[in-house]
Amino acid sequence: MKFVQHLINGLAGWIAGLLLTWGFSALWQQIFPVIDRTGQGSGMLTVLTFILLGISPIAIAGGVIGGRLPKEGGKLQQIFYAALLGALFPIPFACFLFWYTAW
User: Fold this and answer.
1) Which terminal Cβ of the chain has fewer Cβ within 10 Å, N or C?
2) How far apart (Å, rounded) are the C-alpha atoms in residues 28 and 85?
3) Each residue of 50-95: pLDDT tens digit?
4) Nearest to 9 by CA among 73, 59, 51, 54
5) Going by C-beta distance under 8 Å and a sequence separation of 6 or more, which residues neighbour residue 59?
6) Whole-angstrom distance, CA of residue 78 vs CA of residue 81
7) Burial level of 65, CB count in 10 A (0-12/13-18/19+)?
8) What is the pLDDT of residues 8-53, one digit of tens each?
9) What are phi and psi of 37, to 5 degrees?
10) DSSP-derived secondary structure letter, 89
């Protein structure tokens, strides 16, 4: 039963991490104008997929760690903290990947 809860927490962290990074990618383009050096607009989707795959293990780890915080409220609060840490852990790595790929 504990393994299933770890899977749920990891999934919550992964989904939150992917959603936050996907939303951050739209914000990143507004903050730093993107110069498409290759002339291929469709290459941006490939870069975003690469970045999302790169942050996935970190988001899952954040979800599992967030789910293991001391339980004060119950399972719903544990899933909330799993999603919160799963969204916050990959932000520095995602920023580095956005910079590295010249997104």
Assistant:
1) N
2) 21
3) 889 999 999 999 999 988 887 777 888 889 999 999 999 999 998 8
4) 59
5) 13, 14, 16, 17, 18, 21, 86, 87, 89, 90
6) 5
7) middle
8) 999 999 999 999 998 888 776 677 666 655 555 556 778 888 889 9
9) -75, -25
10) T
Give the pair of three-digit tokens for residue 45: 């989707």
- Which residues, including other chains, have CB under 8 Å from residue 51's CB and lie 6 or more apart? 21, 25, 94, 97, 98, 101, 103
Residue that has been written with the tokens 């399972």 in this structure: 75
Residues of the domain holding 64: 2-100
Number of structural domains the chain divides into: 1
